[in-house]
Each structure stands twice: as C-alpha cells, then as structure tokens.
Amino acid sequence: MIVTLHRVTASSTRQNGLNSFIEISHQNLEKIILNLKSLGVKFVSLAQLEQAVFEDAGNQPVVHISFDDGYSDNYYFAFPILKRYNINFSIFVVSDFINQPAPFLWWYLIENIIENEQPVAFEKYDFSITRQTYLISPKQKIFEDFRILLLENADNDSFYFKTRLLKYAQLERPGLIPEMLNWSQIGEMLDSGLCEVGVHTKTHPRFSNLTMKQKMEEIRACKDEIKKHTGVEATSFSYPYGSPADIGPVDTMDEIMEACGIRLAFTTQSDELNKRINRYLIPREFLNNSATAYTLKTRLTGAYQRSVAASKI
Question: What is the pTM of this model?
Fold first, then answer.
C-alpha cells in the first residue's frame, strides 16, 4: 500500500476547513503508523517498493508513505514522527512552490474567499458567487463548484485567475495560506537517509489541460530544480490532483515518463497494488483525519479496493 498525504497540522487547528480532505493532524499520523505496525507491515523506500511490487512481492505487506506538494509542516510535524519510528518516506515537490513566501495555492485562496463569504465575479467564465449564494448553498458545494472552475481553467489563464483571487482573498491574518518547504529543510530530511524527493511538476498543473510537450516541460523543469538544489536525480513522479479525470488520456504516458527519466509515477486513485498495475499509473491510498484502523486494514488487504471495483461492474 502506498499512502498519499499532503499537509500535517497541529491538533488544535485545521480540523474542519474546506481543504481538510488533504490534511491530517500529527497525532493521527502517528496513530496511522502505529496501526500499520500492528498489522505487521514493512515500511519501504521507493526503491524497495519498486522491487516488492514488480519483482518479488513476498509475503509481508509493504507500505510506503508519500507527501505531495511540499508543505513546511511535513518538516515540522511529520519528519520528527517518521524519524522516531525510523520510517522511509518521500516528498513529491512542486519546484515553483519551494522557497516561495506566497506560491499560488489557489485551493487555499478559494477557501479563504468562501470562509469570509466574499462575493466574486469571473465574468470571462460566466461564474459568480453572490451574497445570496452564501445564504442558499452549503459552503462545501460552493467550494466544489469554485474548485472545478479553477481545475478546468487556471492552467491556461493563470494571470487572470491569480489577479482575481488575490483581489478577493483577505490575507491580513497570518497562517491562512500554508508555508512551503525550503531547500535547506529538504536537504536536512534527505540527509537523514529516510527521505526521498520526487517530482510533482514545476507549477502544479492539471495534466488533462496540457499538451504532451507541456507535460514533459513541467516534469523536466522540476527535475532540474531538484538536481540543482539537492544533487538528487529524481526518478519518481506523482500527478498533480491525481485522479483519472485530472491525469487525462494515458496513451502517451509511457513515452512521456521514459523520455523524462521517470521510473515510477503515482496517482491518487485507490486500487489494489499488484504486479499487473502500470508502473506509470501506480495507485495510492488517500488518507486524512477520517482514516481509522479499519480503513487501513481493508486497504492494506485490498478488500476495500476490490469492493469498489465490484460495485462498478
């Protein structure tokens, strides 16, 4: 099983935010680790994972813990826990986010706008949120509609959306937009021997919005920055957002990954992990604060994934 995590938060904050589906408290992260240990898993590096999945599965279930985007809380909250239990992990970084005080994290900007019930108008896309919208629609529904607008259009019209979102967002209070890692923190985690760094693109675009050339440029630019700052030749990749709809057509994906020197590429799609999977469409299990011991057990054995697959037949 490969675990997908994003942000790791302090227990007293961020339990019910609109982006809480990509967040987990450090206490719950530790509980997940302890629950997995009780299930007799072997925590592995990416290299060990590749061998276990594609060469010799063995009898002991394997687990790899991965983080996407590159939030600084991975260093402050997750890293100490992973060191304590001597667990290998990977961080897939967006190179344009690293060392940047204010990267374009539009998913947190739209949360800020909605939580403050700020009316917005994107006339170019015939999209608006009015005060009446906040009265009649749940904030979660507003967030989902707003998120779809950005997913479908922000990559091809980034200046327009960035300008508009920064105009509407109320960023006076610190901490509303997450801080990202810097290269020094990444270097320290790499030096521990537990951390590996992977590619998560240069700007975090939705792959289904890109041409083949743009996909390769995003991967190579991120690889180059990683090599420049860490000396590491990153050979693993995770797709931004990561669902089949976000990834788009996969008929040229093998060609893209091989041309970019990528050995393994990971989705956020839940599926059973076995030798039959495509090494460039490897499933991961998306975990957050709602994960329980039962969640872990059923995903580890494949029971959950098989039941989902059966329900689609």
Answer: 0.94
d(CA 78, CA 76): 6
- What the block records as the tokens of 20 is 């809480």
Q: What is the number of other CB atoms lying within 10 angstroms of the CB of residue 249?
A: 10
* Lowest-confidence region among 138-142, 183-187, 268-272: 268-272
Tokens of residue 5, six digits: 């995590």
Best CA proximity match to 240, nearest among 93, 24, 90 = 93
- CA 71/CA 3 separation, integer angstroms: 16
Q: How far is CA 47 from CA 44, 157, 228, in A?
A: 8, 38, 22
Owner of token pair 């099983």: 1
CA distance 202 to 220: 8
> Helix/strand/coil (H, E, C) string of the chain?
CEEEECEEECCCCCCCCCCHHHEEEHHHHHHHHHHHHHCCCEECCHHHHHHHHHCCCCCCCEEEEEEEECECHHHHHHHHHHHHCCCCEEEEECCCCCCCCCCCCHHHHHHHHHHCCCCEEEHHHCEEECHHHHHHCCHHHHHHHHHHHHHHHCCCCHHHHHHHHHHHCCCCCCCCCCCECCHHHHHHHHHCCCEEEEECCCCCCCHHHCCHHHHHHHHHHHHHHHHHHHCCCCCEEECCCCCHHHHCCCCCHHHHHHHCCCCEEECCCCCCCCCCCCCCCECCEECCCCCCHHHHHHHHHCHHHHHHHHHCC
Cα torsion 226, 232, 236, 242 to 10°: value is -20
pLDDT tens by residue, 20-55: 999 999 999 999 999 999 999 999 999 899 888 888
